[in-house]
Every structure is written in C-alpha cells, then in structure tokens.
Amino acid sequence: MNANYLTKNLVKVAALTVLAAGLVSAQSKEKVALEKEGIELIKQLEDVGNEIKYHGEHLEVFSRTPGISKWSHWHHLMEVKHLVNEGLQPALSRLVEIRPQLPEWKQPSIDKMLAAAKEMAADTNNALLASKSPVAPLMNAAYRDFVARVVQHADSLGKTADAAVDFAEAQLKADEAAKRIK
What is the pTM assigned to this prediction? Predict the structure, then answer.
C-alpha cells in the first residue's frame, strides 16, 4: 500500500511538472510572438519615418526655390499627413497596446519614437495651416520652420527605430541561441 501511495504521488508530481513546463513554454512562445510583432511595428515606423523625411526634404527644397506652386507644397504636405495618420498612428497605437508585455529595455526607444511622432504630427498640422497663408512659401518663415522640424522628427524617428530593430533582432537571436544550448 505504501508503494502504491508513493507511485500515485509520483505520477501526480510528474503530471504537474509536465503541465507547468507546457505553461511556461506557451508563455514563452507568446512573449516571443509579441516581441516579433513589436519588431515589425518598429520596422513599419522606421519605413514611414523615412517616407515622411523624403517628402519633408522635398518641401524644404521647394520652400527655398522660387516658382514652385502651392499645389506642389500641398501635395507633399498631404502625403505627410496621410503617412502620419495611416502609417504611424495605427502602428504606434498597437505598439502602445502591447508595450507592457515588451522587455524593459525597449521602453526608452518607444518613448522617443512616440515623442518624435507626436511632435511630427503637430508640426505637420502647423505646416498645413501655415501653407494656407497668402504669403508664398519662399517668404513664409513659419512654414519653413515647421517643415524643417517635420524633417528633424522624421529623421529622429527613423534612426531610433533602426537602432531599436537592430538591437531587438540581435536580442531575439541571442535568446534563441541560449534556448538551443539548454
């Protein structure tokens, strides 16, 4: 009877160990999936930031060149607005949503990207408002300043995202290598 009791308890302990290992494995897989999603979102932010910089640099050149139509300025400004609203905003919203589950080291990078995106959105809006002025963009210092800041924020966003992606991918590879060694 003692041996039977011991066998039953050993079976229970073994079953609990298997269940716990499965739970840890499932949590680990979910964590890795969220980290990979975070990397993809940050890559998207980098790509959109680079596109915004492209349009912003065109606007900077346009604002120093006489004879460029207001339509050309408006077209690039609307592209920037579209990229902010349709490219940055959804990716940032999801990144903020999953942020609590992401590693602590990603938090400062996310903070920098959020700040750059918010400032870029505000400066884009201000540039749109300033472009409605009857003053030509070449003569409109406020417009040129807002455009220059959009370019700066886009550059900051792109560089921060690039560094975060590089580090995150290296970290994931290191984690996967460590798991294989175990």
Answer: 0.80
